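Propose amino acids for all 313 sites.
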């Protein structure tokens, strides 16, 4: 049986979107066996999709060869149960190269991250993403953040582009997102997808849900899938009490801790995976490891989150 198109598979939010960390061995090289275990456990825990080698997966730190190997292993570990979306980025030529590597590795789609270094105008950004979309048969989700911020008019043009199926927002400007959603709905009606891509997206998902954005990335799922799944289920079923309990008792304190170090949106998550018993190694430079005290606080916070789940039963 031919799998449904990626947009259809993603539009059914059966669970959080899983952004696995990339595992490294003691010598700093990619540890594909541990990475396979990490991805497989996430799929078996209930992830709706795997986004391999994206921000949490340290896309910036991987060579093209490492990238292709990791995507291939993620596809093998997912085994068709959920779609695998791979990151791509840098300048247009390299983004095209990574897109083709992802396609060769068996990925189901691409998450196109901002171009490297330059702050481009809307016309240049549109041309960049159109060239990436045209380079392979893989559907593309465009990631809005940092130096890639779009006007509603540009997003309408993206939505009309063959191969571009959605926008992931890592900016957090809800006024802009409302105008984007409205513009696409009226000028390019269809099945264009929207994702909340802010760090620790659960913290803002109530606001995004009010805009009609039901899909979101979950870094917490990497190290505490039980908590992430409980939050997702509570959101989906309208269990406002559980949502509030987890926001107040776990997610807000986690965001406070995450904000105490640059790069902690990745490094703290990787520390959390290690705390749960899977040695995925340290982050690569230019990121740095969390302090010992911050890791201790994270361990206590994970325990608190599980205690809240027990109390909610």
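Proposal:
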């Amino acid at each position: 049986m031919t799998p449904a198109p990626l947009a259809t598979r993603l539009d059914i939010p059966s669970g959080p979107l899983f952004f696995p960390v990339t595992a490294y061995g003691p010598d700093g090289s990619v540890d594909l066996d541990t990475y396979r275990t990490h991805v497989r456990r996430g799929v078996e825990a209930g992830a709706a999709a795997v986004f391999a080698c994206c921000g949490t997966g340290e896309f910036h730190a991987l060579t093209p060869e490492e990238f292709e190997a990791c995507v291939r292993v993620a596809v093998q570990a997912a085994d068709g149960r959920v779609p695998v979306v791979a990151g791509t980025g840098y300048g247009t030529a390299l983004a095209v190269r990574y897109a083709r590597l992802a396609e060769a590795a068996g990925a189901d789609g691409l998450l196109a991250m901002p171009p490297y270094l330059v702050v481009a105008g809307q016309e240049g950004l549109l041309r960049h993403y159109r060239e990436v979309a045209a380079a392979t048969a893989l559907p593309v989700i465009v990631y809005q953040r940092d130096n890639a911020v779009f006007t509603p008019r540009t997003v309408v043009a993206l939505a009309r582009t063959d191969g571009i199926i959605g926008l992931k927002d890592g900016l957090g400007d809800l006024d802009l997102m409302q105008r984007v959603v409205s513009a696409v709905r009226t000028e390019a009606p269809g099945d264009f997808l929207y994702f909340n891509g802010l760090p620790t997206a659960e913290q803002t998902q109530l606001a995004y849900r009010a805009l009609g954005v039901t899909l979101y990335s979950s870094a917490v799922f990497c190290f505490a899938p039980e908590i992430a799944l409980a939050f997702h289920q509570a959101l989906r079923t309208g269990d406002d009490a559980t949502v509030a309990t987890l926001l107040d008792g776990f997610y807000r304190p986690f965001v406070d801790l995450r904000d105490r170090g640059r790069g902690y949106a990745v490094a703290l998550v990787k520390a959390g995976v290690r705390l749960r018993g899977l040695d995925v190694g340290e982050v690569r430079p230019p990121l740095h490891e969390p302090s010992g005290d911050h890791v201790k606080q994270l361990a206590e916070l994970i325990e608190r989150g599980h205690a809240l789940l027990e109390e909610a039963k």
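The beta strands are 17-18, 49-52, 84-88, 109-112, 140-144, 164-169, 193-196, 215-218. The radius of gyration is 18 Å.
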